[in-house]
Each structure stands twice: as C-alpha cells, then as structure tokens.
Records
---
Amino acid sequence: MQATAKMPDVRELALLDSCVTLGRSCLAGVPEYLTAENVLAVMDKYDIAEALVHSNEARLVQPRWRGNQRLLREIEGLKRLHPVWVLSPPARPDPAGARQMVDEMLSAGVRAARLMMGQVPPLHWMWKDLCEALEARRVPCLLDFAPLRQASTQCVPDSLLLDELLEVCLAHPALPMILSHHSGGLGLAAATMPLLYRAGNVLMDITSVVDYWRRLARDLGPQRVVFATGMPFYEPAIFIANVQYDEVLDLPAKRLICGDNLRRLLAAAR
Amino acid sequence: MSEILDNWRAGQGLPGVLVIDGHTHVGEWPHGANFDTVQEMAAGAAAVMDANGVDAACVMAGGYMWNGTDYRLGNDILMELTARLPQRIIPFAHVNPNDHLDAVLDELQRVQAAGMRCIKLLNAYQDYPGDGPNLMALYRFAADRNMLILNHSWTNQEMDRIARQFPSVDFIFGHYGSRQDELLRELPNVYANIWGIGSLGFLERGIRGVGPEKFLFGSDAFMNPISVGIGLVVYADIPDRHKRLILGLTQARLLEKVGALPAALKEQYKL
C-alpha cells in the first residue's frame, strides 16, 4: 500500500556508508566481494552516494601498512570513496611513533581510522599513545571488535570488552569513536546501551538492526548515529531504507544519520 | 525499470502493492520490550506499517517463548492485540513443545476456538527437536484442522520428513538460508521467509535458484525496522511481478487457504 506519510527520497539523504570492506576474499557464504572495480556500481544499485572503505588485507594480514597503502593506490581518483586506515597500537610505549603514524595517515589524505580492538583488546594502557595521537588530530575512529582471523567485520563485543572500552572512551573525550558493524540477531551485549549513555563521544551505526540505534537517536540525538551496511558481509538492501522510512525521526535528523554526521567528523580531522 | 523500486526510493511506500509481513513480533525481546502495553502495541504496529506501506503483519507475541515462561500468556496478549486491529494483525499462536502434550493440544484448541489459524514455533530456542513427539502431534493437529505453520528453523532432515508426512500443511522456514534451496525446490508445501542477514546478493541468488514463488517477505519487526525486509525485496534485481509475489501475494494465498486472510485485504486487492 501507499505509505500514509511521504518519506524523503533516499537520494536526497545522500547515504554515506561507514563500513565497506574492499578486497578479494575467499570466504564461504560470501561469494560476492567488493573491489575498486565494482564497488561504485554496487553503490549505485543501492543508492549509496559515498562510502568509507577499508582494506580487507589490512584487517587480516600484518603488516597493516601494506593493505592500507594498496587501498590508496586502488581507489585513487574515485572521489566517492573515502579511505580508512586499519590501525592497531604499537606494542611498546611510543607516543612519537603513534603521532608519526597519524601524521602519515593524514598526509596521505586518510581522515578516518579503523581500530582493531577485537585483535588487540581495548586496554587503555595499550591504546593510550595511539588514541592520544588520534584525539589531538580529531580523527574519527571506527571500532572493529571482530576477533583475530575473522574476515567479516560483524561483531558483538561482550560486556567485559565494553567495560574496558569505556575507560578508553572516557580517557579521550574528544575522540569520536564509532561502534562499527556491532550487530547480532538476538541483540547486543547488555553493557552496550549503558556505555553509549555514559560516553558522549561514542556513536553507533545502524547495522545493529534491532532498535538500539533508534533508541539512541531518539533519546540522545541523531548526532550519535551513522549509516552503515557492512557490505559485502551483509546485504546492503537490508539497511538502505531504515532511516528513510523511520516514522519518528524528522528530515534533518535523517540527513544527519544518513551522512552529515560523518561528513562533519571527517571535515574536523586536522 | 522497476516501478515498485522507484516508488519506494521516492518515499511513497508501495502504492498498489499488497504487502504482508510474514514474520513479526510484539513485546519483549532479549534486549528489552518494544511495546509495554497492548494499546501501545496496536498503536505502534499500525504507525510502523502505515509509514512503510505495509497492509498487514503476521504476529507472534515475544517474551513468552523462552523455556520457563507460560506461552499461553503470550497468546492472550496476541488475542487482545488482534481484537484491536483485526484487519491488520494476523495472529500466529505459540506453544512450547516441552509442555505436557495434553496442555499443548488444549492450547491449540483454545487458540483455534478464538479464531487463530496459524502457529509459530521456536523449538530451536527451547532445546526441543523439530520432529520430537509433541511437535509431530502438533503437525497432525494442524493437518486435521487446516492450519499454517511458521518455525524459526528446522534442520533439513526434519523438514524433509515432516513435509512429506503432512503434505496438506504448508510449512514456512522463519529465516531463509541457502541450505534450504533443495527442499524449497522439491517440496511443494515448504516455503521460506526471507528475513535473514545474509551476505551481498544472498536473496537474489536464492530466488534465481529456487524461483520467487517460495519466498515470503518478513522482517522481525517490530524490534527491527520493518524496512529491513522490504529493502531486500524491492532492491532485488527481479521483475516487479516477482516482487509482488514475495511482498504479499504468496503469503495471502497461504493465509487464505487456512482462512486467516483478513476480509478487508481480500476486498481491497480483489483476491
């Protein structure tokens, strides 16, 4: 039937997907992967205007700089794609090294980082140097809790991991941190929403599917939520219209969630 | 070109399309409740359906499906909800097969007397096999009384046995997965609700391999946005006539067969 109220045209919302993995993957159950050659056509099919893209290789294979650098070469000139570097902290205390890592990233035109907290647990004493360097430059960070060797970005960190994360978030209040592809069919860990209510610099994306993101947007504001699909591990069609057709959020709120929040965060990285 | 997709993209919902969500829940879910009272359920469900262009929803009450709870209370809630929205809520009653068989059958008779024609199972969450004796008795009841059955999941072996033993009953997998493809092709009385979080292209691959007639739109609303399931169908690279089947026509046929299709929909869409 006809929708009783006219919703915005999805193209008007200028979707910016915050979680897209590029790279050939050999993964059972995921026969279609995304590369620089096909991703724009896939984005066009699903009305996605822009995307933050990270390297499959950088997530799974050390040293990460190889995958990060390859990503830049592969997407050069593709203005709708914004590179994200996959990072984990240096093993030894090294504030200068962490600052240099962030300098290199920004000099290369990379304005967002994907922090591998599923592979290196979010213990503040391990992440302190890197988070300080990122916070000083206001680099938005996507938090990846997928465990070691898991190809998919989908994850459901447990409450104990989130307890550790809270300390990191509160220690770096000017560092935007996005719970990226935190998604579980039966819901997320009990500490997830409590963490979001307590750490104002933490955002979540809409791949949580269940009504967490809607509750967050309605309770604390649409500036705390960003759009994502998690493709190719998730079918993007699942997420395209969820903000567009929400019956409570107004148009300005929808625009923020669908892309303007992230655009603002990327622009603020210096 | 897809008129259905064009309208959906433009924010108009699905004008002229019968849309029945074949898999929804109201009430409590592991993370919390989506509606607190039956009044809220009715108002909230209607608001979501209106906003998305959904005509009706097949609904199960949440919260009372876990071992240790009284499933009859969930069915009571469902009856109250249906009474408030009789043309838009299609109730799917629930029983826990861990209960005594007599109690299970009593409840089936009770809900059927109250007008329910459809059953939703979740034995996978209840540590009970899909072909256990109490469920085999339930399938027999459904066959004798012409009822429709939706289940969160069966194993392929269970479904193969059950569907052949009860050929007059239509069985619906609650969540589609490619492992079901062979059964969907071979068994005329087996269907799949599309709702599931698969990888890029998963539903299109399934439709190509099985055909559109065996897939039913669903979403696990109202915990999820109902558009999670609509998006899967409208963005699929299939003709509009196939989208119409999946969005509502096939579900309507199955519901009509057991006498559960709301009269208003039959009238409106000339079914």
---
Amino acid sequence: MAETRTMTINMGPQHPATHGVLRMVVELDGENVVNAQPHIGYLHRGIEKLFESMTYRQALPLTDRLDYTSGVSNNLAYCLAVEKLLNIEIPKRAQYLRVLLSELQRIAAHLLWLGTHALDLGAMTVLFYTFRERETVLEILELATGARITPSFIRIGGLAADIPDTFLPRVMAFVQEFPKRIDEYETLLTKNPIWKRRTTGIARMSAEDCINYGVTGPVLRASGVNYDVRKAYPYTSYEDFDFEIPLGKNGDVYDRYLVRLMEMRQSTRIVKQAAEKLPPGPVSATDAPQVVPPDKNDVTSDIASLIRHFKIMEEGFEPPPGEVYSSIESSKGELGFYIVSDGSNKPYRVRVRPPSFINLGALPKMIEGALVADVVAAIGSIDIVLGEIDR
Amino acid sequence: MDSRKAGNLLKETFSDAVLKIEEFRGETSVTIESGRLVEIMKFLKQNSDLSYDMLVDLTSVDFPDQKMRFIISYLLNTTKFNNRLRIKTAVAEGSAVDSVCDIWKAANWMEREAAEMFGIHFNNHPNLKHILLTDDFVGHPLRKEYDVKGPDFGQPLKIDLEKEEIF
C-alpha cells in the first residue's frame, strides 16, 4: 500500500486574501484541507488593558480602532454600555442620528467587504463600483463627524455636535440613488456563473453548528437563524423603524453574499426613515450634567460652566459599582461591551466581545475537506477585521 | 422563561451550588460554585424550559485582594426564549476550572484567551495554547499587578554598533 503523506503550508500573515495579518497553517492532502489552524495576535495592542488606565471619556477613541471599517458602530456599542451603567436617557434626536450614522457605516463596511471579497475570488471590476459608493458614504459621514474612518463622534450621553444643514439633503440624495447601485452590483455577480461556481455550496455551516460556535451576524443569518440584536434586544430606538432581517437557506458563501446585499437594501430603508422622521431637539442628555460637557460658548463666559468643563475633562465621572453587558449588531455580528465598574472614574475591567474573533473560531470547521482555493472564499465570506480580533 | 425565572429555577434545582443571584440594570447574574460548573451548564443548555444554546461571551475579572481572585463570567443567550443570563464563578490563583468546550464549541478560543490573559487553567481543554500572545510570552497581561508600561517603556533604543546588536 502506498504511503500517504500530508503537506503543511503556511498562508499569511502577509497574504493579500487574508484581510489583515491573519496567518493560517493549513494541512493538505493533495488539494483538500485536512486541518486548518488560524494563528492570530499579530495586531494585539492590549486595548482591554488600556481601557483600565483611562477615564470612561478618554477611552472612547480606543473603540473605533477595534473594527476600523465601522468606527461609528464601535463608538455606539461602547457608549451604550457606559450609558446603561450610568442609567441615563438619550434624547430622541440623538438616538435617530445614531441609527442613521451606524446604518450608513454598515453600508460602507459591507461595500468594503463586497469589493475585497469579489477581488479575492478574481472579480476585480466590483471593487471599483463599490469603492465609488463607499467614498460617497464616507464623505457624508465626514460631513457630520469630521472624520472618515475613526470618527469618535458618538459620545457618552449623546453626540459631539448636531449635524450641519447640508447633511440631510446629501443623505436623501444618496438613499435615492443607492438601490440602483446595488442593482448594478447584482448584475455583475448574482447570476454570474463563475461567481456561483466559486461560492455555491462552499464553506457551509448548519444552523446548529453556527449557534454552537457562537457565530453571529450575516454568517449566522445566511444559515437561516433569525437572530439580529437590532430585533432581539432593540437599542437606540430600532423598534421605531420598519425593516426586515434577510435570511439565507444554505449557509454557504453565496448565501452570505446575498444576505449582505439584502442587508444593504434594508439599511438604506432605515437611513431614509431616520432622515425623514428626525425629530428636533437636543443631541445630548439634558439631565446628566456630570457626564455631558457644557456648551463651548458657555465655557468662555460662565465660570460655573468652565469649572464643570474642566471637571469632566480631567476627572471624568463616577458610575455606580456594578457590571453591565450591552451589545449592538455591527456589520460583522454581535459586538458587545462588558464593563465592570468599581465606582471610580476609570473602568475596572472592559471586555470587548468581538464578533470577528468568535466567527473566525468557526473557520476550521467551515473548511474541513474543502479545496485550498476555497479557503480564501471562506475567509472572505466571514468578513473579518483583524483590529477587532487581536484588540 | 425569562432570565429572572431561569435564575430561580437554577436556585431550586441546585440549591447547594447556587451562591448568589444579582439583578443590575435588568441583567441577571447567578454566582455558582466552580466545582459544579459543567453540570449546571449542561442543565442550562439541555433543559427545554431554559435552552441556553449560545455562549455569547466568556471572560474573567481579576480581584487581587480576594482569596478567590478570578471571577469567570459566562454570558449565555437563548435564541428560543430570547434572553440572556450571566453565570459567574470564582477561582483562586493556581486552581483550575473545568472547560465548557464540550457544551459550546465557542468556548474554545475564549477560554484560551482567558487562560493566557489571567493564568487560569481550564481542565479538559483540547488545546490550551496561547492565542493572542506569542508562544514564548511570559506573564498574564490582564492581571491587575501587570503594569501597562513595560520595563523598556520610554527608554531609548540602545544599539551597539561594534557588536551590531540591538538590546
């Protein structure tokens, strides 16, 4: 009997199709994967440790360095957790703007994913289409927040500022135009026989496996599980909006693609509703003077406001002792923050529950027995961001 | 069954192992004895009135002043009844807790992370190697005594040109 030997090859960490510094050690029997082990940690910056040495307010810019493709969502998740700890109520206008911004951010993140995922599988044209619209979205975000990637615009207690007058017309123009653009992407891929051959039936996960591995986000919904934090545990007034949760059937790479495309359509609907229904009013909590800094004009004219400004910036605020977990549906899945407070002005422990980390844990299961070329398709379909995995 | 009722059911079923039930901001946390962990977790997953089928998060918090210094916190979610329950258990330094990998596969990587960051040992874990840190890393960074600034913090990089060595 002939001797069979397996071959071990190394993918990454500098591999263009691993979306960052992910290293995979893949054991192959011919073209088929016997065993695959992701090696991570190349981008580990100790963010959870850094949280413990900063006040709650100072730590905010750390959060959009986690998942740098959806900065607004990360800020939102952290702020919601701190606000839950403080038990403060956010005005409706701020909540609607938070929804609007984070849905725009979801569209931008999905567009980045679609372009790069198609590029990984050899369809280069899609990238140029999606980056055109992503740029429009980032320009709109920049108009409101002042930054393209790391806005830190959502603050504990509300928003950093109100939106400029030119913002809503730009948003409305975008939501008018964008569904047609999604149709364009669909003409490139959805019925494309090469695309279907590369994605249909690849890296399948059953619904039970997904739940057992803790997988969330579009990957879970592509397997037909109706779990979306926006519906299951509504936050930031998501219950006021009319939208659907797209579900897949087969749990393969193709269904994940379809789910994300449908999600972009739903996000457009939410953005449109938020822009139309946007109520007037303040954008920061009015009953939390210990958390929300005073108006800039008051700081220069009123001594009490000046003192309050310095107190908030220097000392911060002291939430009651306790522990909270709060999560949102980011573009990758359930992004949660678990904060333990000891009653001081710095968090005692902050744990980030990163969706990409846990979704990537299911990758070895997904690609068991697959062809080595499909490993790239599988990695792309999970939509990982290493900044969030390694923290 | 909502999470408060789930906590009460747990108290009735395992009255000797459930130490404390807390409610804070609408979240239920149940503290249990670490020796009974796997038994209770299996019950939480398999009982059809509870069916906590998803392990959302697993992490640890370090309280160096206490004898049982590490609180391991498991956040469970049920997709059937749509609620979350937090299970907490305390372990002392140097002692171990049983792995829940056999119940939820999601625990594999999260236990590896908790193990390297805090130095907690998980019994029966299939592969308890470092995950985010390098294999030769010494120390447990998320322990409270571990300083944010390392010994080389703020020091200029010394280069000995004659030996061509970087310290």
